[in-house]
Amino acid sequence: MEAILESVEKVILLAGSSPQVLATLNASIVPGTDGKTVSSLLDECVEHRAMDPGLMAPLANLLHTVACGLPTSSRKRKRESVESRNGTPRPSPSRTSDITLPGPEL
Length: 106
Prior knowledge:
This protein starts with a helix and ends in a 37-residue tail after the last helix. The protein contains four helices and no strands. The longest helix has 17 residues, at about 55-70. About 50% of the residues lie in helices and about 0% in strands.
């Protein structure tokens, strides 16, 4: 049970650092709880240091569903295709440069 509670605490910390995660957890109702949100149930679990065994699976499934729906924090852009617009191959962007570097001095 302690490992579960540690995971719950990590989710709460993550939610506190991301307004989008917090809003999502506050808006997600856990089935079979008379309208309780994911956020309120996680807070209760930590406060009481216990979790209703009947809620473990539904809460875990809902957390997984919510997590999969959130965008990742990666801001990487996809590179352009190695083919130009007319379909002919071109060198990879990492192999071309407009910068000329001086050779080593001998």
